[in-house]
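Possible regression after last week's pipeline update?

I re-ran a chain I had predicted before the update to compare outputs. Posting the input and the new output here so someone can diff against the archived version. Not blocking, just want to make sure nothing changed silently.
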Amino acid sequence: MAKRQHKKKHSFWKRVRLKYKLSFFNESTLEEVWSFRLSQLSAFTTVGLFAVLLIAVTALVIVTTPIRNYLPGYLDVEVRNKIILNALKVDSLEMLVQTQAMYLANVTDILTGTVTVDSVHRSDSTAFITANYDVPRSENEEYFVKSFEEEEKYNLTVLNATPTVTEDVLFYKPANGMISSRYNAEIRHYGVDLVAGPRESVLATLEGMVVYTGYDPQYGNVIGVQHKNGFLSIYKHNELLLKKTGDRVVAGEAIALIGNTGDLSTGPHLHFELWYRGNPVNPEEYIAF
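New output (post-update):
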């Protein structure tokens, strides 16, 4: 039995390696024009190499040409981030064009005498416009101020020698969303969680400087902004950070995008913390969410 199987196996390889001759003859003279020898094994090998070469060329064409954009699932996170950054750059260019147009309009008005030079504000940013409020008072205003000061001289409620730290400070809402988890120092939850749509803008709550940007395994992409009045705001679980350490930001400026990064995140949201001189405070006491 084993001898018969060995004989069949030997016969199979003999048939596979057996060469066949293919010849082409001239019909008129019956002269052999061209011929070649080919076995079944070499035929299978040639067809296989041709198939592998065809697959490799097809893959190379797809990878190196824009056709790859039509493949499902190709637009990964990195490509989406590039698209978002490009969109932000386009918005910045549009704002720059509008600023330039405003500047040219101001120059035109000055040259034509329509407005005076002193009445033209800076056109690059409305966040740093410093208005002059030193307006002379009228006689009626002077009389009213003196009367009011005289009436309130002995009012103890106005004798506050130490104003609050939030006096004349406007906190911006860091994101548009619903609070899913509130501040609770007993369980070491030193902030509020705002549920919002993915990739929505995260805004700086006050003017300041970015002092930290990085990735934390538990909190994902984190950015921290130090403010002049002793406050420090921290924004966690971001999808993308739009600022880097050392950048100066104004209140209400977009600094990140809402995300779902970090092991402690269960969905797109922003974990917002507010610290004052090294101690955590309840953000809801300063911001109307």
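Follow-up from reviewer: compared with the archived run. Helices lie at 2-17, 40-64, 77-112, 139-151. Marking as no regression found.
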